[in-house]
């Protein structure tokens, strides 16, 4: 560990000990191996978030926003676009979340869909929101070619059950259409956010909760996708929203991790609301920033996979 990471480790260890003394004992991490692995997973989660902030300070090549170039990266493209086309910036974050980055084929699937298979007429937010039927026709026409051209393209690991088959019960065009409907008749993410503020005020946590709940109408966007999409908007400085809770309900890995931490066993029979409150209280006692709930959600999910030995998970 370098000095910064060592100092962070020491600080987190102290804060967790203080939490146990003042609030709740955490039975599993009485074993030093489990405690060490947990703290290192928290640090790993913090560093993944910090990386998004770091790349925004760098010079980003325009090629990163060109889906016809192998350097294409939707997150970096979103950073480029937010300077003069914030609506496209939101759209790119949605696409990145829906497709995911595959460990073997990278962003290739998203590149070929967003870039309209190299035609030069990209499926931008303006085009897709105003011509959803055109995308339906395009995908139906090009699906077989995409499938048989010998180029490997896959969804990311967390999206492996998705499909770009136009005959799928949740085909891309029905997913896209539901997202366009969620954004609203003005086809403006800015208007969507303003409408949310009119409903719940401008508190970042209230706004996150409102948008999270409203996103249930977006087809194929479950707990993880909604959480990842909305937290990425904050990390990229696109929307000032962040979660109050870790959204344990409906999760698998994070719930197992929370069970392990607070109950001593991944199958502990702890009420979800109690778990959610416990994770909230722990987060409130750790100085890990506004995205503390994302840090803990991610860390608990990874920790429960290997609770007594730190393993670095990248996906």
Give an overview of the whole structure.
By secondary structure, the protein is mainly alpha-helical. The chain folds into 2 domains: 3-55 and 245-303; 64-235, no CATH class. The protein has 14 helices and no strands. Helix 1 packs across helix 2, helix 4 packs antiparallel against helix 11 (223-235) and helix 12 packs across helix 14 (292-303). The radius of gyration is 21 Å and the shape is globular. The model has no long low-confidence stretch (mean pLDDT 96).
Concise overview:
By secondary structure, the chain is mainly alpha-helical. It has 2 domains: 3-55 and 245-303; 64-235, no CATH class.
Radius of gyration: 21 Å
Pattern of helices and strands:
HHHHHHHHHHHHHH
Total individual domains? 2
Mean pLDDT: 96
Blueprint of the fold:
Blueprint (H helix, E strand, L loop, with lengths): L2 H20 L9 H25 L17 H8 L4 H14 L8 H7 L10 H6 L1 H17 L23 H12 L5 H12 L3 H11 L8 H13 L17 H11 L8 H13 L7 H12 L12
């Amino acid at each position: 560990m370098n000095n910064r990471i060592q100092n962070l480790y020491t600080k987190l260890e102290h804060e967790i000990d203080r939490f146990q003394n003042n609030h709740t004992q955490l039975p599993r991490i009485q074993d030093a191996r489990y405690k060490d692995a947990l703290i290192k997973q928290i640090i790993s989660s913090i560093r993944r978030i910090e990386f998004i902030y770091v790349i925004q300070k760098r010079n980003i090549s325009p090629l990163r926003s060109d889906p016809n170039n192998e350097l294409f990266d939707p997150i970096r493209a979103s950073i480029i676009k937010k300077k003069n086309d914030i609506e496209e910036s939101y759209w790119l974050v949605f696409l990145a979340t829906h497709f995911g980055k595959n460990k073997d084929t990278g962003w290739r699937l998203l590149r070929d869909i967003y870039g309209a298979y190299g035609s030069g007429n990209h499926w931008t937010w303006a085009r897709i929101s105003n011509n959803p039927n055109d995308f339906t026709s395009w995908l139906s026409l090009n699906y077989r070619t995409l499938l048989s051209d010998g180029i490997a393209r896959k969804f990311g690991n967390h999206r492996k059950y998705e499909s770009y088959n136009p005959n799928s019960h949740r085909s891309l065009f029905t997913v896209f259409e539901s997202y366009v409907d969620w954004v609203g008749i003005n086809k403006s993410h800015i208007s969507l956010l303003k409408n949310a503020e009119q409903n719940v005020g401008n508190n970042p946590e209230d706004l996150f909760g409102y948008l999270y709940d409203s996103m249930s109408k977006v087809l194929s966007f479950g707990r993880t996708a909604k959480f990842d999409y909305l937290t990425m908007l904050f990390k990229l400085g696109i929307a000032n929203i962040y979660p109050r809770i870790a959204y344990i309900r409906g999760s698998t890995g994070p719930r197992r991790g929370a069970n392990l931490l607070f109950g001593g066993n991944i199958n502990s029979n702890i009420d979800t609301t109690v778990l959610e409150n416990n994770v909230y209280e722990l987060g409130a006692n750790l100085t890990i920033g506004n995205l503390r709930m994302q840090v803990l959600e991610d860390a608990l999910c990874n920790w429960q996979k290997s609770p007594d030995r730190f393993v670095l998970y990248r996906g």
